[in-house]
Amino acid sequence: MRASAGIGRRWVGHRARQLSVGLALAFAFLTISCGGDSSDGSTQTSTSQVVPAGPGSLPPYPDDRAERVVVAHDHQLILVDGPNARVLATTKDPDAHITYPRWSPDGSRVAFVQASLLLRLEGDWGDDIFVVDPDTGEQRVLRPHLRAGEQISGMDWTPDGERIVVGIRQVRVSDSRIEGFDLRIEEYDPETDASRLLVDGATEPSVSRNGRLAYLAVTSDGSRLLVSALDGSGAVELEAARGAAFIFAPRIAPDGDAVAFAAPAVAFMSTPRQPSRVVGVFGWFERVARLGARSAEAHGVPMDVWRVSTDGSPGAVTPMAEDDPRIAWASNDTLLAVATGYTYAIDAGGQATPIAAGYFDGSVDVAPND
Questions:
Q1: Which of 219, 301, 217 lies closest to 31, judged by CA?
Q2: What confidence score (pLDDT) does residue 121 get?
Q3: What number of H helices and E strands is found in the chain?
Q4: Which of 107, 221, 286, 318 could crosslink 305 through cysteines, CB 3.0-4.6 Å?
Q5: CA-CA-CA-CA torsion sign (224, 230, 233, 239)
Q6: Do 161 and 74 contact (CB within 8 A), yes or no?
Q7: CB 117 within 8 A of CB 17
Q8: Separation in Å, CA 293 to CA 94, 122, 354
Q9: Residue pair 18/246 in contact by the 8 Å Cβ criterion
Q10: Model pTM greater than 0.70?
């Protein structure tokens, strides 16, 4: 009964977060998204839960070094490193979860958001950003919420690893009800505790290794996918993304030449997909599963994965009809997508291969390889 209640609370909280973004983006008919938060409970580190991986290793890059991968799922941040997987951090607050894991450019730190599953009308609550050393498990608060009702809607490091770019969704409350949400993207310096506005009325920032910023600009007419300089100047809309009814969780490629995101499915897949046996190249998802990650029943609007070039050329769609797929670039050409149904590897040609079980509201990031 306790497990069922927990799943129910997470499902309701997740749907509340979806509704909040749907209102902010003026897509009332979709009522989907992410975000929301409480930071009453801090995170705690666990470095002892090491799980043997068995045969197989992580996929090598051309320089033959193995990947390091972080997976955020429910209350846990999990590190997959070579043949082992271990929990880096867990939340103490049962109504909070971990999301937006992001490796620093030098691979020495992982930032993540502790987000609430509930929207609150009173009290001091908001999303906090933490950073953890993947080798020692030592962690600290990188950016606490600055105002009550401040939620994080996207986060990434600047290319020098000294600052973070944060999407903020501020809940507006009046007369004991939620009136709406104010969106902005800021650059935050942890050393000086100073923030700088980059883009107003925008959300879901993603930063490339060469300093290009991708984000969603939101108006009463909907949302548009733009790419700009890191300071927000010279913004250009990616016209190829206009065919998407709704854009979810965009990520820019390391070289800044493409942006991948999820959008409502163009067509539903007629046959059920079965995950291939998890061996060798993507065996690390099996190791995550051994830590107790649990998939959930499908919910929400089925989505495909889109990939659009930043040079204005036509985009490509990978049909998936999946629930809430969230994307990480494994290289400049290949993607990983974690969805509720399955976890997928997507090659340079856009072919998606189910490789493991999915994770409810899960997200993933791959360490830089240079």
A1: 301
A2: 64
A3: 2, 26
A4: 318
A5: negative
A6: no
A7: yes
A8: 16, 32, 17
A9: no
A10: yes
